[in-house]
């Protein structure tokens, strides 16, 4: 593509190897080095949970191209630049090969294939796009989550010819055009004032060129904006403790670091390590306190308190005739590692999807017994098409009850025990169903019939419960985190929907206290399939406070306490580039350079991170980062 601009960045098509490019699970594939200035947020480098690239370097009669496949579940993107970029031009040459698409995890209402340039991309669900849609019209969209606003459009006569799409953005002025079709849109819109640029496609197409251009003045202005952002971060970092390396732990081959908790006694934290045989509990000085010699598929821990010894709950064994699922549950005494009890797991209910693997899981809370005959732990299913059955057991492993819910619940964080109605007993929130402590139905989510029909919804991936805040007028609410259906804010007393937030495929959430200026807790909710890496913070009454997308992976990240008296920060720990602490306004505040140094030569596929406390008296968290066979520990300096 020819350019008369003073600064430009062009997709290096001719340098790319033939065949698949940028495969997510091959982070050292040669195409990644060539595309070092480009990302695909929907199939990112070194993502543990992703799908094939969906992009291939091909030669056509019309020249070299990147072929975008029909990836069915979601589209593909090539992005470059800084989030602080404001003014620039972007253009591409493309051929569209598909008319219709199918509903995706990103947009379950979608029916049209579309391909074209994107600009001022703030998240993978918030951008402008000039595209050929359905091979029958040229459309300029402003997208904000599920709100697709048509800013301009024109029907076209298209017969698979190569077209040029181009856009210029300067302050609030937008110009978008297709020269071959003689179409030009000129308008003003200031909702999205900065962001990255590139190309996005849903459905098959061929990309023959992609370029971003800036004048000298635009380049200087964008560089100044990026520098101002860096200055803000450095200023904020100077007021927040830096990470100090306080120790390391060399792991034997095939060992793993789990966590540190009060296990053998309430007044100390021990290390819990995974071993090839099972697990080991060690002191910080390296003394092995006890070992458990059975491999487990799930481990949950109820830490020791002054009133009760720690209990460890493990799923062990295998049922070869039932897909290899665990066969038994074992409860261990934390002080000695001796077995408290062992029981055979229930028969796995017949699934309407025998092709989908089924596993067993504990619910989120264990060790909840408040006396004889009360729930100590629960067993749930773990299956990709949704789950229906929950079983309650007391502390002696006696069965209390079994209930089959109508509305499928989802993954580990989708079933909780909490006193929802204030009667002093723990109810069970099983996805979109509330059960009494005796296993009786209290309510079902009022929108579940709509919910189960949404592609990428169909089961509640996680639930969060918020008790009344400081304001006594606030009603208790439940967050039902429903995949592609978004986040339902529900009245905890009756299951009726108060509000729905469409934020992408909402998959998980955690309570936090990141804002001292707001009452009660906040809740941070993250996305996965179709839009990895989007973070949204909610108030304790379900108000959406902000949304960011610092990277496109977002696994294992969590709220941490970095200052004794300050609010929590969110620790993003999934890539070297985005590593850092984010404040309650969604801003990077401490880059954690010493932690970033551990990432050198590693990717998200071989680094694991978690936050721990080294002792019960610690008032701040320690970061545990495992790279290779070494666990590095960092505390605030």
List the defining traits of the structure above.
637 residues; 7-stranded antiparallel sheet; 9-stranded antiparallel sheet; mainly beta
Q: Tell me the radius of gyration.
A: 26 Å
Work out the helix count: 4
Largest sheet: 9 strands, antiparallel
Q: How confident overall, as mean pLDDT?
A: 92
Give a count of the beta strands, DSSP E runs of length 2 or more.
48
What separation lies between the terminal Cα atoms?
51 Å
Low-confidence stretches: none
Question: Which class do the helix and strand fractions yield?
Answer: mainly beta
Question: What do these coordinates show?
Answer:
The chain has 4 helices and 48 strands. The longest helix has 23 residues, at 216-238. With 637 residues, it is mainly beta. The strands form 10 sheets. Strands 1, 2, 4, 5, 7, 12, 13, 14 and 16 form a 9-stranded antiparallel β-sheet that branches. Helix content is 6%, strand content 44%.
